[in-house]
């Protein structure tokens, strides 16, 4: 297991240390993460979604060892974050949400500094820096000071920093925020490429990003995990209402016929002989609609089931 989070809780305010039974505090306590469990297998790319303030960054900071948990355990690459913090740091590449960079340093100077903190030997480090600059597409900007770089290129420096010590696990907190569409596509490609032989947990607010990159999605809301699974599984599990659009040769003289199909809850006429038919439960209406059309001599020219978009699922689960 590359990441194993068990029963993790984080409270801000109140007591600063780990909880022991019966411990209480007078200060206002904000429970940012509430008994969550989550595992990420080696080689998986997992999208971590949730509305603002849901607890994504808090979970990621704890997983990288930057913040202590209030309760629960976290292991990265088999190392416990509390008992083996240095092994955890070696195992993880972390791009924090507000990518902290030294603006006065040159790109290579900064990467050399970041690499030396990881104890990478000088000769090996030069080669690693060259390779990472190439990998994240910093070639043209590599001789600038970080303060002279655009947001997208600063983000690439952060990504290069996270990858420098060749960690098996990458934790990226909103790595594509504020990038233009071209940069977005390039950084996504970088994440996909590094994800071929690394475990990646990344947070984002962009649904298409998850659809484009991830094997699996975890959705957190108010500190609790409300969904966890492959995208296809989430789509069918959260289906709730199944919607089918049936198109006939023209408007039906008796559209109420459609409501006689077992399971149909609502029929909404659209234009050009189309009807949006909603079933309350997870049943496929298409066969029944087809048979109904045949029985009543109605010419059915189209029939398609609408897929739940990740956006719809997200809204449903986090409202
Ligand atoms: N240092 C802190 N002190 C007190 N409360 C905090 C602190 N950091 C985060 N919080 C609170 O914890 C909750 C979770 O915040 P967190 O930053 O983990 O959410 P997030 O899902 O990453 O949000 P966003 O998508 O807006 O970045 C929020 O209510 C936030 O206000």
From TrEMBL:
ABC transporter domain residues: 3-247
PANTHER family per UniProt: ABC TRANSPORTER, ATP-BINDING PROTEIN
Protein name in UniProt: ABC-2 type transport system ATP-binding protein
Region (Disordered): 1-28
Keyword Glycoprotein found: no
Keywords recorded for this protein, A-Z: ATP-binding, Nucleotide-binding, Transport
Family annotation (Gene3D superfamilies): P-loop containing nucleotide triphosphate hydrolases
Similarity comment: family membership: Belongs to the ABC transporter superfamily.
Pfam families with a match to the protein in the record: ABC_tran
Molecular function per GO: ATP binding
Entry-linked SMART domains: AAA
InterPro entries reported for this sequence: AAA+_ATPase, ABC_transporter-like_ATP-bd, Motility-assoc_ABC_GldA, P-loop_NTPase
Protein species of origin: Spirosoma utsteinense
Domain of life: Bacteria
Membrane-traversing stretches: none
């Amino acid at each position: 297991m590359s990441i194993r989070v068990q029963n993790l809780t984080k409270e801000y305010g109140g007591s600063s240390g780990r909880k022991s039974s019966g411990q209480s505090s007078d200060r206002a306590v904000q429970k940012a993460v509430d008994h969550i469990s989550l595992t990420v297998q080696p080689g998986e790319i997992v999208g971590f979604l949730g509305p603002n303030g849901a607890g994504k960054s808090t979970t990621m900071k704890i997983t990288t060892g930057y913040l202590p948990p209030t309760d629960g355990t976290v292991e990265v690459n088999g190392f416990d974050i509390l008992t083996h913090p240095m092994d955890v740091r070696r195992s993880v590449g972390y791009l924090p949400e507000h990518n902290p960079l030294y603006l006065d340093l040159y790109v290579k100077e900064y990467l050399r500094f970041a690499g030396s903190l990881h104890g990478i030997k000088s000769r090996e480090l030069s080669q690693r820096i060259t390779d990472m600059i190439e990998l994240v597409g910093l070639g043209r900007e590599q001789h600038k000071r970080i303060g002279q770089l655009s947001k997208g290129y600063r983000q690439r420096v952060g990504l290069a920093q996270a990858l420098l010590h060749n960690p098996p696990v990458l934790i990226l907190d909103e790595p594509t925020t504020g990038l233009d569409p071209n940069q977005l596509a390039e950084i996504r490609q970088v994440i996909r490429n590094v994800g071929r032989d690394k475990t990646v947990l990344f947070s984002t607010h962009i649904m298409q990003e998850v659809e484009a990159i991830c094997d699996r999605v975890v959705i957190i809301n108010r500190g609790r995990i409300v969904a966890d699974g492959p995208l296809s599984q989430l789509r069918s599990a959260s289906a709730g209402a199944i919607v089918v659009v049936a198109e006939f040769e023209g408007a039906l003289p008796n559209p109420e016929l459609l409501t006689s199909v077992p399971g149909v809850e609502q029929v909404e006429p659209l234009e050009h002989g189309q009807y949006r038919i909603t079933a309350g439960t997870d049943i496929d209406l298409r066969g029944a609609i087809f048979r109904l059309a045949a029985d009543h001599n109605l010419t059915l020219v189209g029939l398609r089931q609408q897929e739940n978009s990740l956006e719809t699922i997200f809204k449903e689960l986090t409202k």
